[in-house]
Amino acid sequence: MRKVAVIGGNGQLGRDLVEALSAGHEVYSLSHDDIELSSLANVQTGLHKLQPEIVINTAAMHHVENCEREPDQAYAVNALGARNLALVTRELDAVLMHVSTDYVFDGAKQTPYCEEDAPLPLNVYGNSKLAGEHFVRSINPKHFVLRTSALYGQHPCRAKGGKNFVDLMLKLGQERGQVRVVACETISPTSTADLSRQIAALAHTSAFGLYHATAEGSCSWHEFAREIFAAAGMKVRCEVAEANEFPAKVPRPAYSVLENAGLKRIGLNHFPHWRNGLNAYLEKTYSAVSS
Length: 291
Fold this sequence. Notes:
This protein is α/β, with parallel strands linked by helices. It contains 10 helices and 12 strands.
């Protein structure tokens, strides 16, 4: 049984990770109150006291608009925070698993991005996360960097107001019977439960490196919304929003689909199609609500 520290263990992904790892590991959930990533001294104190063998970093400043308004804070958390974790885990000879984002790409490719494709972020969030990747990969050789996309899960994402896209669509559909959703962004919606299982599988290996880690397949946000209503058995009129109806305050990639090429090469791609992930999420959420 290995000792694992989950940074951001009280978050949307972190809570699912703690659950997924608890069966075979001694897991410690660390929140912002327990560890301040932007402080190297704080990270050293917290992790040296705990002496983990694996550290999984799910914590980030990932509200895109806030990152644009507060770039210094975004880099302090997403870039220097990753650097601090890399330095301390190297000191401890511990494995560092670091969660990154599809937003390191500009979306111009229009076919799924592989790990070998050159990143070119469009905004502060993407740039700060890419800087964090570079720190992790250059400092601690025992690393996993996992880029993921469009996460949703049972636990609230506090930085984004609590409700994920699935829950928001169900709420608006029930209240209004009609929604309008953009179709100009193509993504791979990924459940935190599926990502947690993938991270747990990798944690048992020493296949260190950079990996794309998303659900299989892709869709627009509009297509995702339509599938949510269909899977939930709700009759909701779901229309495509006009191009400038919900103008983006920050540039975002129009196409950020990732190909899990690295995971497939090592025979460890455990992700289902995004529709299967959605159905499993809805089934688990509804059973939890009704029980």
